[in-house]
Amino acid sequence: MRRLIHETNSSYHRIFVQEDDAVRTLRFERNPQSSMLIDDPFETDIDYPAYFHIALALKPDAARTLVIGLGGATVVKRMWRDYQHMHVDAVELDPAVVAIAREYFALPDDDRIRVFTGDGREFLEVADTLYDLILVDAFDDDTVPPRLMTEEFLRAARDHLTPGGVVAYNFIGRVRGDLSRPFRSLHRTARNVFAKTWSFPIRPEVFITLTEDRNIIMLATDTTMPAEELLARIADRVGGRVTVPGFEHFGDDLHLEPIRSGDVPYLVDDPPKRPRGRRAGYHP
Asked: According to the model, what pLDDT value does residue 124 have?
């Protein structure tokens, strides 16, 4: 039976932390955001966080990662634990979420993890750091904030990547069908900025078609690589570097068919643009 162990109203969300005998879950309003196995704080019963590790198949020497959107710190914890030379910066808009990640979701206190409170886009635009991986895992309810999907944001992300670096999104949506336009617009915009994109619509345990909502991990990079090589790297766990359960099968979800884009717009900022934040406004 699920128990409520924490509830609060922040400036951005009504936040709940619940648990049963095995799993602790972070929820905003009605939507689950993160989970943690109580007996193993680095594991989760949610599928999509593990797919972010596909970025290492494109950038195997990655050593510095930016995560936009902290949640229960599932992605941050695993990147820190699994890759001993990885430094992880995380930016979270809601200070209450940062506090909950530390108190209830075992976010490590370590020099290789820096957590900043503030707007992820503004942080990136004024950052003086180059990253190997930029992972976008931020949501307003169940959608990625529009400011994190525009051409201007993607160009700022590209400017803050090392050569061969990767931007990866967690997106809830559809690849085909009447309600696929939001994802296809993001995909088209990314293709306008980067040389290559890869999309992984994640199959849930119960089969659904590509015209139904699911988590989609989309990666964008200037590294061109044949699909066969990417799949081979996934199959051998990037030379054994990646240890997340089932990773060797994630290539089964690679979407190789063309994604239609002619009927959807590029995503751009609406004028006037919001003023940029100042670095001093971001603090661990």
From this structure: 95
For the chain, domain boundaries: 47-258
β-strands 64-68, 131-136 pairing = parallel
Sheet of strand 23-28: strand arrangement? 3-9, 14-19, 23-28, 31-37
Give yes or no for residue 281 having a pLDDT over 70.
no
Q: In CATH, which superfamily holds the domain spanning 47-258?
A: Vaccinia Virus protein VP39 (3.40.50.150)
The 10s digit of each residue's pLDDT in 97-132 is: 999 999 999 999 999 999 999 999 999 999 999 999
Q: What single DSSP character describes residue 73?
A: S
The DSSP line for 119-188 is: -HHHHHHH----EEEEEE---BTTB--GGGSSHHHHHHHHHTEEEEEEEEEEEEE-SSSTT-HHHHHHHH
